[in-house]
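Milestone M4 deliverable, item 7.
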Amino acid sequence: MARILYDLCGRDERLRFSPYCWRVRMAMAHKGLSFDTVPWRFLEKEALAFANYDKVPVLSDGDTVVTDSFEIMRYLDKAYPEAPVLGEGISYQRALFFKRFVERSVTPPIFRIVAMDLLEAIDPSDKAYFRETREARFGARLEEVHQPEQGRRQLKRVLAPVRDQLRASLFIDGGEPGGADYLLFGSMMWAYSVSLEVLVDEEDPLDLWFKRMLEVHGGVAGKATTIRDL
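Output delivered:
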């Protein structure tokens, strides 16, 4: 049976920008797994009732339904063990740590850089929901949260260890991309999909790494529709 990924879309169905869905997309490409996608919007909760979940990504793989991006990556390693993404044991624990680092330290400054661009990119029917939920999370209006220069300064600081890593290797996980690369790339692709804002300086090791990530696995990310195409 076909693998189906429920994937967040924007004002144009071709615009797929969820950082968590991009993690899964890259993990699937890493393993060479084909899949279909179902575009999903924030308020379409009933479409995910079968998964007993209210957000994406959701992966339907035959009779198996898996929710949460990291759990989907974990499932893919168990169901399709060739070309592991997260690995087991120590490798898995390190990937779990890096996931927490990305979500708690990297994603907030990226949001500050692209907050208003995200609002513009999402489907009009989702805008009120997006504004209400994100303003509650940050305790401020989106216009106040949107501080690109402040976000870039913060992002530069928190990514310093990753920058050092990329001075020594092509990818975070070494000579080839792996789970850590996909975890960070998902968040950076989130911004790249919806905004023309610069996240890191040109020719920075992170900039060069991001450009390489756009080209891996047949350029699956580089060929994706972004705000530049709309």
